[in-house]
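Q: What would this chain look like folded?
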Amino acid sequence: MITADRAIERTESAIKMLIAIVEIPMARKATNQDAIDRAKKAAPTYVDLGQKGLIRKYFLNGDASGGGVYLWESREAAEAWYTNEWYDWIEERFGARPKLSFFDNYVVVDNLADEVRIDGANWNPALSPDPT
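A: My prediction, written as structure tokens:
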């Protein structure tokens, strides 16, 4: 679980956030229930990673692959998780080597929170159409 101090620290370091996308080739798409069951089994691992820099994970279930979208506090936190041992673990579990891609994250449009953040700071497009 994330403490209030940890949440404040994360907000202040939002400028360093990194998105990782993991794709694991699959022979066929899992049923919705199978995908949910696998995600429920795996979820505690990712809850624990909250103490090591993982902010959020979305589980993916596609036609030709599965995987996840991960939001990390920093590239360093992500690279600490995606080791050679991690690649071997995924390949053992799913029978295929995963593809991993990293993306820097500078701008977030969050319609649930009704906000736009640029480099971690709130930005109101109605008040300032050009953030630069």
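Residues 18-104 form a domain with the Alpha-Beta Plaits fold (CATH 3.30.70.100).
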